[in-house]
């Protein structure tokens, strides 16, 4: 049954819209293109407006390129460490120009595949920038102005029964560390480098900072990671963060804890990173990984009754409704969870709801997430820290991967499986640290989503030998 609860400001956007409804989607990232796919398959007339290319930041400058770069770094790291398996290597040479050309090629290819898929479904794709006009027309439809990219300075007027805003977010910039695309870089600018940085200073130790720091160290660059917190990955499981930090240091990374970068100055041959204690770190390049800001300026939100938070994010409820009639929003511009999988699901839910289909509102407590360091970190559900801080009664079990027979065969020494259950035995969370943890987390995601007990999880067969066998073993401990 469709959710019928009112939106954040009491607007009822839930009345089903007839098949053949006109749907306008602003933004072509995961939230936008997945929404377009659902709406087109449900018989709507869909127009998608995107200026930079389909796939948005996730495909063009964020998830796809970064994980492609990380995959290359992992291969280099494994080759460099192959001696443990009895494989003699003569070193690893990195051609950064070729690496980044492949990164950019795969991003363009994925964007093109999305374009073909949408056009096959009959979605009209317009290359331009869109904004909402205030009020409704005399037929109760939304009005949209589109500034076309080609030909320039030409406006197009559209009307739609339903509007979805999925404009994403952009790297946050600090006034004293303005990116120049050459020496001071955001994560969207790294893929233009033709040479491996001699010394990369990474400012910010969250997911983005940790992933790139680990990747560039794996590629052979000297890396210094500047963290304002007591540890890196402050938002992740503390046991997992401890392993990643230890591995980083063992591989030769320098970590500056409990300090902030006050300013970054670029010169012809490097950067000076001034810390808040007065020290200066000299490097060849600096990556600023200090968060993101939503792309919500210039959309006509205020004039159209769409409320935003102090940070500029669009307020939405669990079915992606905004505070304005039949205007929905999805993805990083909403600030719900900055994950491509969440953006995609928000977009699907929005169309199911707007077009009168059955749906389950978004449940963020069952969302799986991953950090693509080496080893990877993946988690789902409630964390051990969160449960204990709220006084929730839980049981926790953890086993290291080093005792797993398949892990021994692959010379895996770092990592673990942790499962959190309620006192009644229901699986409510889990963490995996190790190779391909982003794939291995799926059984725990299913367990959390389906409210399985630890006994049900442990009774399912696993392959011997396999890394997944440790998941079953940890579940048995919680019997």
Automatic annotation (TrEMBL):
Protein name: NAD(P)H-quinone dehydrogenase
Keyword NAD: yes
Residues reported in the UniProt entry to bind FAD: 67, 332
UniProt KW Cell membrane keyword: no
A GO term, aspect molecular function: NAD(P)H dehydrogenase (quinone) activity
Cofactor names: FAD
Keywords noted in UniProt: FAD, Flavoprotein, NAD, Nucleotide-binding
Pfam family of the protein (one): Pyr_redox_dim
PANTHER family associated with the record: MERCURIC REDUCTASE, NAD(P)H DEHYDROGENASE (QUINONE)
Stated family: Belongs to the class-I pyridine nucleotide-disulfide oxidoreductase family.
Transmembrane segments: none
Domain Pyridine nucleotide-disulphide oxidoreductase dimerisation: 367-473
Domain FAD/NAD(P)-binding: 22-347
Residues that, per the record, bind NAD(+): 204-211, 291
Organism expressing this protein natively: Ancrocorticia populi
NCBIfam families (alphabetical): PRK07845.1
Cofactor-binding details, from the entry: Binds 1 FAD per subunit.
InterPro entries recorded: FAD/NAD-bd_sf, FAD/NAD-binding_dom, FAD/NAD-linked_Rdtase_dimer_sf, Pyr_nuc-diS_OxRdtase, Pyr_nucl-diS_OxRdtase_dimer
């Amino acid at each position: 049954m469709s959710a019928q609860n009112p939106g954040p400001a009491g607007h009822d956007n839930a009345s089903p819209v007839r098949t053949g409804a006109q749907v306008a989607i602003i933004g072509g990232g995961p939230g936008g293109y997945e929404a377009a796919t659902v709406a087109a398959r449900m018989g709507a007339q869909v127009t998608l407006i995107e200026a930079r290319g389909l796939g948005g930041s996730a495909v063009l400058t964020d998830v796809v390129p970064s994980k492609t770069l990380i995959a290359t770094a992992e291969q280099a790291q494994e080759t460099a460490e192959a001696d443990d398996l009895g494989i003699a290597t003569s070193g690893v040479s990195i051609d950064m120009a070729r690496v980044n050309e492949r990164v950019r090629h795969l991003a363009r290819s994925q964007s093109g595949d999305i374009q073909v898929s949408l056009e096959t479904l009959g979605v009209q794709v317009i290359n331009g920038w869109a904004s909402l006009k205030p009020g409704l027309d005399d037929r109760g439809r939304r009005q949209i102005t589109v500034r076309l990219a080609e030909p320039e300075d030409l406006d197009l007027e559209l009307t739609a029964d339903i509007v979805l805003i999925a404009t994403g977010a952009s790297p946050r910039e600090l006034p004293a560390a303005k990116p120049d695309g050459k020496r001071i870089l955001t994560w969207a600018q790294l893929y233009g480098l033709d040479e491996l940085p001699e010394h990369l200073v990474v400012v910010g130790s969250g997911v983005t900072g940790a992933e790139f720091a680990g990747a560039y160290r794996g590629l052979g660059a000297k890396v210094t990671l500047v963290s304002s917190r007591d540890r890196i990955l402050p938002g992740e499981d503390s046991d997992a963060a401890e392993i990643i930090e230890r591995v980083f240091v063992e591989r030769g990374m320098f970590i500056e804890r409990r300090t902030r970068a006050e300013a970054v100055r670029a010169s012809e041959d490097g950067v000076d990173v001034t810390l808040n204690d007065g020290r200066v770190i000299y490097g060849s390049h600096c990556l600023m990984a200090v968060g993101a800001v939503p792309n919500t300026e210039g959309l006509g939100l205020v004039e159209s009754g769409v409320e935003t938070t102090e940070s500029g994010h669009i307020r939405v409820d669990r079915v992606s409704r905004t505070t304005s009639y039949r205007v929905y929003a999805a993805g990083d511009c909403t600030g719900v969870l900055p994950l491509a999988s969440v953006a995609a699901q928000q977009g699907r839910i929005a169309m199911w709801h707007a077009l009168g289909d059955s749906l389950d509102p978004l449940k963020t407590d069952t969302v799986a997430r991953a950090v693509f360091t080496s080893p990877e970190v993946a988690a789902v559900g409630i964390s051990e820290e969160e449960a204990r801080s709220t006084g929730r009664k839980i049981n926790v079990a953890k086993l290291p991967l080093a005792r797993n027979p398949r892990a021994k065969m692959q010379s895996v020494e770092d990592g673990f499986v942790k499962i959190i259950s309620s006192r009644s035995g229901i699986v409510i969370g889990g963490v995996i640290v190790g190779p391909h943890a982003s794939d291995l987390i799926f059984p725990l995601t299913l367990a959390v989503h389906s409210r399985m007990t630890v006994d049900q999880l442990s009774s399912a067969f696993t392959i011997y030998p396999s890394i997944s066998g440790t998941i079953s073993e940890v579940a048995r401990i919680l019997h």
